[in-house]
Recover the amino acids of this structure.
């Protein structure tokens, strides 16, 4: 958002854990919660047909026409909230939204144990995607550029592949999680004919793609965004996924600009802001 891929002005922040201080239903007050970021109308064509995250009238926390969470207070409908289990510390719970986004891949496509799966990009989302795909038992490799990213992948018992080692037309499923045209190009070359390319990044501006080759190779392209919160909470509660290793630093809200600078440094994966 800061780079300007979407013209948003307002308070940023959409990954959070917080406590309910005011609610119509008083039973929510005092509860520790995470929240789904799409606020939807329940009336439009998309909502009525089971695609609420694509609501035509949606606002999105800290992204589309709705102030986000880098603030003392924020507002969401109660239907967006999920209670955080007591055994889940804030440092884990704050990852629910991106972990849910990682899990969306498995909501959309079936990953078989025999599949060769490549995750291109080992930033914040790439790491979470790798951890969740590993649970399927598939033959998984992760393309990680920075040494720190490689260490984190290996620390989870997962295998790193360098860009040079990627064999073209080999992978059944390739997940693009770099957000860069170079990353897309790598991912595109890796996927086998009739394989699936999962697009997990947004891109700044427009991107040039050779679509003829995608037609010729009969590639399935799957755009993938927000995912289910409850499985994300469950996987962290059982510690099958542990995103806390991604945390590089923590700042108070009045040092938020420092937090942004820190987050922009190479190899820094996640910076928390405490409010
Ligand atoms: Zn709607």
């Amino acid at each position: 958002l800061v780079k300007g891929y979407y013209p948003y002005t307002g308070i940023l922040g959409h990954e959070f854990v917080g406590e309910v201080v005011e609610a119509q239903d008083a039973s929510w007050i005092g509860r520790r919660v995470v929240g789904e970021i799409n606020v939807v109308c329940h009336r439009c064509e998309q909502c009525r047909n089971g695609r609420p995250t694509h609501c035509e009238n949606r606002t999105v926390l800290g992204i589309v026409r709705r102030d986000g969470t880098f603030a003392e207070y924020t507002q969401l409908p109660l239907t967006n909230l999920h209670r955080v289990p007591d055994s889940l510390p804030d440092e884990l719970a704050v990852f629910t939204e991106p972990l849910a986004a990682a899990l969306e891949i498995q909501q959309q496509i079936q990953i078989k144990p025999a599949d060769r799966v490549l995750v291109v990009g080992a930033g914040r989302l790439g790491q979470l995607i790798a951890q969740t795909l590993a649970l399927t038992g598939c033959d998984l490799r992760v393309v990680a550029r920075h040494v720190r990213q490689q260490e984190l992948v290996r620390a989870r018992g997962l295998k790193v592949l360098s860009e040079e080692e990627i064999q073209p037309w080999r992978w059944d499923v390739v997940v693009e999680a770099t957000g860069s045209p170079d990353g897309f190009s790598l991912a595109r070359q890796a996927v086998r004919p009739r394989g699936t390319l999962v697009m997990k990044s947004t891109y700044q501006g427009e991107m040039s793609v050779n679509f003829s080759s995608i037609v010729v190779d009969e590639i399935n392209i799957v755009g993938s965004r927000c995912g289910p919160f409850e499985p994300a909470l469950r996987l962290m509660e059982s510690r099958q996924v542990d995103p806390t290793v991604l945390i590089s630093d923590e700042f108070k809200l009045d040092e938020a600009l420092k937090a942004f600078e820190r987050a922009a440094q190479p190899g820094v994966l996640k910076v928390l802001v405490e409010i």
Remarks:
- Residues 40-41, 43-44, 46-47, 55-57 surround zinc ion (CB under 6 Å).
- The chain is about 25% helix and 20% strand.
